[in-house]
Amino acid sequence: KTGMFTFDPGFLATSACESKITFIDGDEGQLYYRGYPIEQLAKESDYLETCYLLIYGELPTRAQREEFEHTVMKHTMVHDQLTRFFNGFRRDAHPMAMMVGVTGALSAFYQDSLDINNAEHRKVAIYRLISKIPTIAAMCYRYTQGLPFNYPKNDLGYTANFLHMMFATPCEPYEPNPVLVRALDRIFTLHADHEQNASTSTVRLAGSSGANPFACIAAGIACLWGPSHGGANEAVLKMLDEIGSVDNVPAFMEGVKAKTHKLMGFGHRVYKNMDPRAAIMRETCYEVLKELGLENDPKLKLAMALEKIALEDSYFIERKLYPNVDFYSGIVLTALGIPVSMFTVIFALARTVGWISHWNEMISDPGMKIGRPRQLYTGSPRRDYVPSGDR
Ligand code: SDX
């Protein structure tokens, strides 16, 4: 499937790009990270191993995995002065606003000693981002709740440590539920990368100017926030709340067909078949809710009814609209105790490895040129200036 197209290098320098990281077949609904099907990685691997795979292109040996995990978990704390940025935010600020601001501020702490043309320096930046993004994400949540920040607990493992930083309180013991840890870790893996999506393209374009990786990741977070992209998981939950019950689905669907609103969590720029991540997310949803005794969760029932009706409706079939990764993720995240306002933050946390892997792949290419998308001009032809008195 690869090599089907050959691009003129000049064309590559201005718009499309080549990458070895992720392959999507939108018609077949297939997604491979470095050649490995997402279905296998979601079931057999875990997020940190997937991070290693996306960065280095190969699955790690046991020793490589241990060294990678040790290094990532050694740098989970942030500079104490970085925590003061939060005081400038209102307590009701959207967590994504804080994620953009504080992640961008990492530039002020690590940028000076960073030469992006030095592979070792790029490796340090990559590891720092993967290490610290969960800490910053949890701080965004704690700040909105008026709770003190939790220090990382590095012996807990990457995903369990994130849940600890999110929910532990000094007043009572907190042990992350292993079922919830496994489910969240799988959600991280499903969101880790996705080829040249809008936010990854944003990171690449920003990086192509030589901007530092922390600022580039902040740009990716900003782009991901939109409801047509990573903000869709939050929009799905709001949509399910608005619909309320299965009885209201037919009227809602009429509004979709009349184009007064979209069926959030459905459709995709590339997939014209089921997004393979959506199927795994639905399965994870069942597992978590069943484990928690919530298999009759009304939101899950409503989502399943919506999906069933849409998949049988000619409007959606003709337009090849299927559930995407965002359709079920919000229901699972809710069951994990994560508030709606944090859904896109979770997406950003997980996608950071994809963004920084693409950044690294691009910067490592000695032939890299600054991105410069071209345009088709449709404005006025040349005309002469008219003095204001003659207008
Ligand atoms: C992500 O790019 C990536 O890889 C992104 C992502 C990643 O991992 O990085 O996969 C993550 O962003 C997933 C998408 C999350 N967004 C949503 O769920 C929001 C709802 N979806 C839509 O806004 C929409 O489907 C887009 C933005 C995702 C895609 O928009 P397109 O490219 O315009 O869709 P299309 O060309 O396939 O649309 C064909 C038709 C149009 O109608 P007609 O003009 O032919 O009559 O389908 C309609 C669209 O209006 N349509 C929808 C719809 N999505 C498209 N109608 C109702 N509900 C929808 N969700």
UniProtKB/TrEMBL annotation:
Transmembrane stretches, start-end: 327-350
GO BP, one annotated term: tricarboxylic acid cycle
Pathway(s) it belongs to: Carbohydrate metabolism; tricarboxylic acid cycle; isocitrate from oxaloacetate: step 1/2
Substrates-to-products reaction catalysed: oxaloacetate + acetyl-CoA + H2O = citrate + CoA + H(+)
Keywords for this protein: Acyltransferase, Membrane, Transferase, Transmembrane, Transmembrane helix, Tricarboxylic acid cycle
Active-site residue numbers: H268, D326
GO cellular component: cytoplasm
Gene Ontology molecular function, alphabetical: citrate synthase activity
Entries under InterPro entries matching the protein: Citrate_synth-like_lrg_a-sub, Citrate_synth-like_sm_a-sub, Citrate_synthase, Citrate_synthase_AS, Citrate_synthase_bac-typ, Citrate_synthase_sf, Citrate_synthase_typ-I
Domain of life: Bacteria
Family: Belongs to the citrate synthase family.
NCBIfam families named among the record's database cross-references: cit_synth_I, PRK05614.1
Protein name, UniProt field: Citrate synthase
Species whose genome carries this gene: Chitiniphilus eburneus
